[in-house]
Amino acid sequence: MIKKLPAALPIWTLIAPVLAAGLLLGLGAANLSAWLLGLVSLALVAAVLAAVHHAEVVAHRVGEPLGSLLLAVAVTVIEVALIVSLMLAGGEGSNALARDTVFSAIMIVCNGIVGLCILLGGVRYKEVAFKVEGTSPALAVLVALSVLTLVLPSFTTSSPGPTFSNAQLAFAGAASLLLYGVFVFVQTVRHRDYFLPADGADGDAHAPPPSTPVALLSLVLLMTCLVGVVGLAKLLAPAIEAGVRQAGAPLAVVGVIIALLVLLPETLAAVRAARANRLQTSLNLALGSGIASIGLTVPAVGVLSFFLPQALVLGLSPTHMILLLLTFGVGTLTLGTGRATVLHGAVHLVLFAVFLFLAVVP
């Protein structure tokens, strides 16, 4: 769902792409000091936020369903760039980074974002409403994609370890793309009304689209942001891995960091919608982000893995499988009634805290 956007672009969305490109050109492959690492990190976060904003501007101009596809592709490029950059720079264990990032995205979406939005909405309005017709199919797609790409590899026998063979990986990627494509069609065309707020209002339906010059400028700035994100991620990759190893944390924490960064814009938008008593919009953003994270990222990383030296590890550990099962079980109970309270939000946030704790202390 594309958010209502101002006619003029905020000044920070103009500065962030220029800053990211300038740092990338100026620093090159230089060794980064502590203060430069901090500056590059801030520029990377700003570039991610600006990229999503400019993608929304262009998406609002072109309309649905191309708009949602453009948003998803932009976010996927960012996520894949971060994953591949760290995989290329990493050593042992980096071949599981895609799995860790996608699993982290699911936990953040289903427990962190959903729990926080329900809690905030419940505190402010006592009870929040949403449409089961929209949340149930979205959750069904997310469950199917998660099991297909993160659980099955631990049980297949064609390749050693929790991996897919090349044929299996190609099939899983094609199936993921198909499911994502059908979901986008249903959400934006065939059954769009299922995903509107429970009161039937569509705050974006009458929002005037940006002018052609503004949309073209956003398109140029979006491309600049994506190039900046890819380049800055490559610069930061060694420092991120070194910092995690020095802290004594498992390498899976890197996947949590990537997922938190990529999902930051959608999290902020979902929280704003929940505070305005539009939980349906929050759930659309959250579940849609999770579906895109698997449905587009896994096929993209799968194709790139053919050119990487190590096999792509996708299968989850038994602990993470149990956490995934618990998350989807609780999610089914929460999203199956059409109404939620602070208790539902609290349960999801506790599960999110469990996920974060086990990521650091497995």
Automatic annotation (TrEMBL):
Topology relative to the membrane: Multi-pass membrane protein
A Pfam cross-reference name: Na_Ca_ex
Keyword Cytoplasm: no
Main location: membrane
Keyword annotations from UniProtKB, A to Z: Membrane, Transmembrane, Transmembrane helix
Keyword Transmembrane applies: yes
GO cellular component terms listed in the entry, alphabetical order: plasma membrane
Subcellular location: Membrane
Top-level division of the source organism's lineage: Bacteria
Chain ranges of the Sodium/calcium exchanger membrane region domain: 33-188, 218-360
Membrane spanning stretches: 36-57, 69-90, 102-123, 135-155, 167-186, 214-237, 249-271, 283-308, 314-335, 342-361
Coiled-coil stretches: none
Gene Ontology molecular functions: potassium:proton antiporter activity; sodium:proton antiporter activity
Protein name per Swiss-Prot or TrEMBL: Ca2+:H+ antiporter
Species in which this protein is naturally found: Roseateles oligotrophus
